[in-house]
Design brief:
This protein is of the alpha/beta class. It has helices at residues 6-14, 25-28, 86-91, 150-161, 179-191, 223-226, 238-252, 275-287, 290-293, 309-318, 343-355, and strands at 52-54, 61-63, 141-145, 165-172, 195-200, 257-259, 299-301.
């Protein structure tokens, strides 16, 4: 700092209040003129009072805290609680100090600290169940095509067993066995689906099938005959239409999973039940929808496609399916009693027999 002018220094001396002269710490400890020197509090004793200096504003003396012991002056350090005095430590009666015998930390290093984990009291802890299911909005949804028959009901049970929240979709397409729609409603209610939609679409305007036109339903056919060729009960492009309408609803409810109960073993003659058709439709669905173009692909699930009727019944029974609610007959009576003679009734009866499970179907006559 620059020195004050002599005139200003003389005027400050004249304005100094009367009393004892200000004591400078450097007059007592000249060696403390070093800029980096610090004075510890231990030198502030009754025999060695702290220095004082005049306050700038009032001129009164203001005590200055001393922070370092000058060289050559020995001040004994006060023992920490539990450490004992120096004599006790020399005799070995006092416990060792914390950190004694360990290497000192270097200057600039951050000392290691112990992390304390605070836990809530036991009575305030949140109780959760290991088997608690996630919220409905956090779980995946699936759309299941439900006709009211044995196969579609089993596919619905498999979807629920896979962890999906299920929407069910049924079609009233002009089929002669329209009583299966009533069965589908009972099944959807029993299974607790999120919503059951029923779509009216009259395929009788096209005809071409024993199910939508005045064409007799074939009966009493042998098992070998049922599995070969395209039968007259085939409805033209039915599964293509059903999957397209299901895809439209799936896009609205934001569900990327669609279940359909097609089977390529018992109905190998149906072209829209083959794996090649399902794969092709899945590719078309992902190409022709907004969700598919935005990277949210659709998956067409066919859990029954390679299963025999006996395997389907066995799987459904393990999942708790009540097959007494289902209807598989192509030509039932007004009360819903199965004919027991059409291809669907014969395959159903044979499946229960092979699975060793009693058939709860009410037939018009013994099968």
């Amino acid at each position: 700092m620059n020195a004050l002018p002599r005139e200003r220094e003389n005027s400050m001396k004249e304005k100094s209040p009367a009393g004892p002269p200000a004591i400078s710490i450097y007059s007592r400890f000249p060696e403390f003129r070093s800029r980096n020197a610090t004075i510890p509090f231990s030198s502030c004793t009754s025999e060695n009072p702290p220095a004082a200096r005049p306050h700038k504003a009032s001129g009164k003396l203001k005590r200055t805290t001393v922070e370092e012991t000058p060289p050559g002056v020995h001040t004994p350090a006060l023992p920490l609680p539990g450490e004992g005095t120096g004599k006790e430590r020399e005799s070995g009666s006092a416990p060792p100090r914390a950190g004694e015998g360990q290497p000192r930390e270097r200057r600039g290093e951050v000392p290691q600290r112990r992390h304390v984990i605070l836990r809530r009291p036991h009575h305030q802890r949140r109780k959760t169940s290991m088997n608690a299911l996630p919220r409905v909005e956090d779980r995946k949804t699936a759309l299941v095509l439900l006709s009211g028959g044995l196969d579609s009901t089993t596919a619905l049970a498999i979807a629920k067993d896979s962890g999906f929240q299920v929407y069910a979709l049924t079609f009233r397409y002009g089929q002669r066995h329209a009583i299966e729609i009533t069965a589908a409603q009972k099944i959807a209610q029993a299974c607790g689906v999120l919503k059951h939609g029923i779509v009216d679409i009259d395929l009788r305007v096209f005809g071409g099938s024993a199910l939508t036109a005045d064409i007799p339903v074939p009966k009493h056919r042998a098992a070998e005959e049922i599995g070969h060729g395209i039968p007259v009960t085939y409805v033209p492009a039915r599964n293509t239409i059903f999957l397209s309408l299901a895809l439209a609803w799936a896009e609205v409810i934001d569900s990327q999973d669609i279940f359909i109960a097609v089977n390529a073993l018992d109905y190998s003659g149906y072209p829209d039940c083959r794996p090649e058709f399902i794969s092709a439709f899945e590719r078309a669905a992902n190409l022709g929808t907004r969700a598919g173009s935005e990277g949210r692909p659709y998956r067409i699930h066919t859990p029954l496609i390679q299963m025999t009727k006996a395997q389907i019944i066995t799987s459904g029974s393990r999942l708790g399916v009540d097959y007494s609610l289902t209807l598989s007959c192509y030509d039932p009576d007004p009360l819903g009693h199965a004919c027991g003679e059409c291809d669907s009734c014969l395959l159903r009866a044979r499946g229960f027999a092979e699975a060793g499970i009693p058939d709860p179907t009410p037939y018009q006559r013994p099968v």
